[in-house]
Amino acid sequence: MMSAPRKQQRFDVLDDMANVSRKIRTLFDARVREKGLTLARARTLLRVQRGEAANQKELAVELEIETATLVRLIDGLEAQGLIERHEVEGDRRAKQVVLTEAGEALAGVIDRMAGEVGREVLSDIPAQELQSTQGMLRRMARNIETASQRSCEPALAKQP
């Protein structure tokens, strides 16, 4: 059985991680607002620029959001003249999202801003600590995936 102080330490680590994540999002959101974007729109713009999804459905998966939420984000970016939707050949329902010239330029600016935020946040942390932390975070991500799969198995088994 885990001792109370150790249990508290584990909770504190997770709480600290959530706090850091929230603060990074807040900082980045403030920066991209100067460029007329929300954090969600900036993330979408960067994913499209990096070519991480072939169509809207894949983009929603990459961003870990519902398709309906993505449609609203794309509508806003399209209204700003930053992206366009193109039909996918052979599938009338699927839409590919591409950057306009203005979107490409702004995505480059946002990408540089993200790099600046990263440098500011990590500026005084030694490389060895970063490497150790990255290893820990990757193990945690694998543990989360394993736990998610286990928690979904009973539900999947009940389906006809």
Give the structure's gist in a few sentences:
This protein is mainly alpha-helical and 160 residues long.
Give a topology summary:
Layout: H1 4-33, H2 39-49, H3 56-63, H4 67-79, E1 83-88, E2 91-99, H5 101-122, H6 127-158
Antiparallel strand pairs: 1-2
Helix pairs in contact: 1-5, 2-4, 2-5, 3-4
What does this structure look like?
- By secondary structure, the chain is mainly alpha-helical.
- Helix 2 crosses helix 5.
- A hairpin with a 2-residue loop joins strand 1 and strand 2 (91-99).
- The mean pLDDT is 89.
- Helix content is 72%, strand content 9%.
- Strands 1-2 form a two-stranded antiparallel sheet.
- It is built from 6 helices and 2 strands; from the N terminus they run H-H-H-H-E-E-H-H.
- The chain has 2 domains: 12-124, Winged helix-like DNA-binding domain superfamily/Winged helix DNA-binding domain (Arc Repressor Mutant, subunit A), CATH 1.10.10; 126-160.
Class by SSE composition: mainly alpha
Radius of gyration: 20 Å
Strand content: 5-15%
Order of helices and strands: HHHHEEHH
Got a strand count? 2
How far is the N terminus from the C terminus? Answer: 39 Å
State the helical fraction: over 70%
Mean pLDDT: 89
CATH class identity of the largest domain: Mainly Alpha
Largest sheet: 2 strands, antiparallel
Domain module tally: 2
Secondary structure tally, helices: 6
| Low confidence ranges | none
- According to CATH, the fold-level topology of the largest domain is Arc Repressor Mutant, subunit A
CATH superfamily of the largest domain: Winged helix-like DNA-binding domain superfamily/Winged helix DNA-binding domain
Please give the CATH architecture of the largest domain.
Orthogonal Bundle
The 3D shape can be described as globular
Strand order of the largest sheet: 1-2
